[in-house]
Amino acid sequence: MIKAAIVGAGFIGPAHLEALRRLGDVEVVALCDRTQAAAEKKAAQLNVAHAYSDPAALLAHPGLQVVHNCTPNHLHASLNRQIIAAGKHVFSEKPLCMTGDEARELLALAEAKGVVHGVSFVYRHFAMVQQAAALVNSGRAGRIFAVHGGYLQDWMLKQTDYNWRIDPERGGACRTVADIGSHWCDTVQFVTGLKIVEVMADFSVVWPVRLAARQRSVSFGAAQGNAEYEEKPVTTEDFASILLRFADGSRGNLTVSQVSAGRKNHLSFELNGSDGSIGWDQEIPQRLWLGYRDRPNGTVSDDPGLLLPAAAAHVHYPGGHIEGWPDAFKNMLACFYADVKAGKAPAGEAGYATFREGAQIMLIVDAMLQSHREQRWVKVAALT
C-alpha cells in the first residue's frame, strides 16, 4: 500500500480522501489541519489514524510517500516547497501558487528533486472530455478555429456571501478567474492541444463591499439567518469576460462568474472546426454534443462501447450508469498514482496536469490580470 497524507481538511480535502480510498492501493495514514484539535476531530470523522497541526511533523511520519496539498491558496507555494524538500511526491490543489514566478520556481524544484508532481485540474478526466480530445486528435472536427464557453457559479451572488477567497492576501489578486477560469483554460487546452498565448480581459466587481458574517464561514455555505456582519471591501473580480488567442492563430472567448443565479457548477465549452463542432456541459457530463452543417447533429453518451479507446478507459460502468465529478477525481488520481507506483517523475505529456501545466496556467492568469489592469491585449509569458 502507498502511504499518503492530506494537509487541509476543508471542502476539498475529504474529496481527495474519498477518491484515494476508491483506488484501493493507497492508504491515507495522516491528516493535518490548522490546529491539533481541529485535525483530531476531522481525522476521527474521516477514520484517519493520525492527526497533525504542524506540516513539518506530518512530513516526518514513518513511511509517508505522498502528500496532498489541500490548503488555502496563499499556503500552496510554501507547503509545496516543504513537501518537495522532504522528498515526497506532491499533489497540489490549484492554483499551484499565487504568481507565475512562484510557479516557475516550484516546477524547477520538483524536477530537480525528481518527485512525482500533479495539480488538481480535474475536468480533463471526465470520459466525455477525453472523448472530445480523442475526436479532435483524430481529425474528426477538422481544423479548430474557435473555442468558446464559460464557467458559471452562483455561490457568491449575495452581498452577504463571503469567503477567505475574497481576501487577496489569502486567495490572490485574481479570484474568479484563478479559481474557476483556470479550470476552463486547462480543459480546453487539453482538448484542443492548443496553448493560449494572448488574452484581453475585463473584470467586474459586483459587490465592492460585502457583508461578512462574524462567525467563521465555509466554502459554498450560506451564513445563518441571525448572523452578525461586518463590512469588507472587495478588490477581486466576481465576473470576467476574456478574449483569447491560441498559438495556431485560432480564437476564443471565455466568461467566468461566481454571481450567476441558478448556475451551480456550469463549466461548458464548444469547439468549432472546419468539419464539425463539439460541445460539453459539466452539469450533464455523460453527453457530448456533435454539430454538423450537412447532416443531423448528434449526441454521444458515456457508453464505453461507443467511445474511442482513450475515452473508454475513463468509464467504469455500463452505459447509462452516470459517472460525474467524484469519478473524474478518481480518474485523475489514478493517473497520478500510476507514476507514483512506477517511482518516476512525469516526462512529457502525463495525462494529468503536472506542475508544468499548473505553472503555464498561472502565467495565463497573470496575463489576464495584467490585461484587465492595463485594458489591452497581453501576451502570456513563456514558461522557460
Automatic annotation (TrEMBL):
Name assigned to this protein: Gfo/Idh/MocA family oxidoreductase
Gene3D superfamilies found in the cross-reference section: Dihydrodipicolinate Reductase, domain 2, NAD(P)-binding Rossmann-like Domain
Keywords per UniProt: Oxidoreductase
A Pfam family hit: GFO_IDH_MocA
GO MF annotations, alphabetized: nucleotide binding; oxidoreductase activity
Signal peptide stretch: none
Record has Transport as a keyword: no
Residue ranges annotated for the Gfo/Idh/MocA-like oxidoreductase N-terminal domain, each copy included: 2-120
Domain GFO/IDH/MocA-like oxidoreductase: start-end pairs: 129-278
Organism the protein comes from: Pluralibacter gergoviae
